[in-house]
Amino acid sequence: MIAATIDDNIDRIKSDLVSRGLTYDRLLEDILDHVCCMIEENMEEGFDLDSSYNLVMGSIEETRIPEIQHQTLLNLDKKFQRMKSFTYVFGLSSALLAIVGAFFKRMHWPGASILITVGIVLVILVFLPLYFITSHREQVEKKNPAYAIVGYLSIALLMAGALFKIMHWPGAGVMIRVSIGFLIVGFIPLYVVNAFQKGGKEKVRLPYIVMLLVGISVVMLMTNVRISKYAINIFLEEVVSNEQYLGEIETRTGRLTEMSHDSAYADKQSQVFRIHEKAGELQVIVDELRESLLQSVDQPGATIQEVKGKDKVIRHRGWDATMDYDKEEEFIRMALGFRDMLNEMLLDPVIRCQIEDHMEFTRKVWPYEFGERFAVGEPFIYNYYLLTKISKEIALTEFVSIQYILRH
Amino acid sequence: MIANDLLKGTLRTIVLKLLADNGRMYGYEITKRVEELSAGKIKLTFGALYPVLHKLEADGYITTEKEFIGKRVRKYYTLTETGRSWSEQKVDEFLDFVNTLTYVLNPTPA
């Protein structure tokens, strides 16, 4: 009797399930039988068919059926499963590559930059898109492609920014800031809203958000170069004293060059002139670099005393934006040329040693190849101080060289 | 009730073990049996069950036979040979895991 009633309604139940999105035949058979069993159980407890049917169907959430079908089909989709495992293996190996690269960089072994770059580029171009595609396909209700897109953009940009930062390529600061903006106003709200919409079924993965925030703060710390007021004042004192020394040295060098005009030094005049000329050219460029640094603070005509603590401004614009790389390269090339010239002129080992000491900045400030940029990420006042120190050292080099030539 | 996320990875093992013990079973029967054995603590929903069953079938661990119950089809699931040995292995592994956990969570004083 009961079985007959269910059988009478079997087509109705079936079409009901189909209209809820159950289109995969093999699963439909299973669930149809399952639902009928549930109905029968209710009927045994005394409900009539209709109310029992409504009870059962009412207990199944609207989204549940398509979700089950989606999950079943994905489980069966060998290609998708392969893609998923490929994604993880690939992501892991690219990350490993970048980590090995970081280790190489620490050890100053060759090839570090290539390893890091390849690792991060692979993560950005292969792993991340695959990851977002697979996880998007796993969602039943394709809620918002914006979620995947914003997520991809912000994480890809953040990693690219980190890469640029490590490699000292220009534009890193902007990329990092934009990506953090994306994360904070785009990705995290979307993520939380998405997770809450799903209700209890999928919990907000709090650890992910915490990790993300910690990551953001680490990146922010990396770009943060604030120093204490005390340190700022020490550097400022150094700047002032460097400038005073520079003035004094230049006066004395002036006296020496005047002296060299005397006919007694006729054979030495050309050497003195060349040294003086080269040193002067170097001073012009250092002044220009210093000027461009000052201008980056956006306070026209301000002195260093007034803007000594303007670290924040510099950081927001990024040192990258303030530094003229071409000029910087021109300067270091000329400084090295200056040193070589003096080495040729002055054969005395003691005076050479003295010059080497003064010209040490050519090795200390630019210790590696040109990829290693001057003073990137250092506080504003520190960079300014370095430039005044370099100025002073050039003047000293000039003075001791000319003095030596005139004496011997 | 046992929380869903605790059940997640173990569902496959439970299904394999039930089929090994009971021969052939159909889906609803499996959920009922689990409920009964766990004294109502594990309520297996069909949403969790069928994706697993279909995956096991696709991987060749179980096969199906169809039977008509009135106008509807009922699918009985049975372990294949590979499914049987795999099931033993999985159950052993899992029992080992549970025993280890018990030790860890309830250390007996030496």
Can you describe this structure?
- The complex is a heterodimer of chains A (408) and B (110).
- Chain A is mainly α and 408 residues long.
- Helix content of chain A is 79%, strand content 0%.
- Chain A has 18 helices and no strands.
- The longest helix of chain A is centred in the middle third of the chain and has 32 residues, at 229-260.
- The model of chain B has no long low-confidence stretch (mean pLDDT 86).
- Chain B is globular and about 60 Å long.
- A three-stranded antiparallel beta sheet of chain B has the order 1-3-2.
- The longest helix of chain B is centred in the last third of the chain and has 25 residues, at 81-105.
- Chain B has five helices and three strands.
- The A-B interface holds A 3-4, 6-7, 10, 26-27, 29-34, 36-38, 64, 67-68, 71-72, 75-76 and B 26-28, 31, 46-47, 50-55, 58, 66, 69-75.
What fraction of residues of chain A sit in β-strands? under 5%
Described by the principal axes of the CA atoms, the overall outline of chain A is: rod-shaped
Biggest beta sheet attributes of chain A: none
- Helical content band of chain B: 55-70%
Stretches of chain B where pLDDT falls below 50 for ≥5 residues?
Answer: none
**Share in helix of chain A:** over 70%
Shape of chain B: globular
Strand order of the largest sheet of chain B: 1-3-2
What integer value in Å does the Rg of chain A equal?
36 Å
Query: Mean of residue pLDDT of chain A?
Result: 80
Largest sheet of chain B: 3 strands, antiparallel
Helix vs. strand class of chain B:
alpha+beta
How much of the sequence of chain B is in beta strands? 15-25%
**Broad structural category of chain A:** mainly alpha
- Listing every helix as H and every strand as E from the N terminus to the C terminus, the arrangement of chain B reads HHEHHEEH
Low-confidence stretches of chain A: 315-321, 367-375
Element order of chain A: H for helix, E for strand: HHHHHHHHHHHHHHHHHH
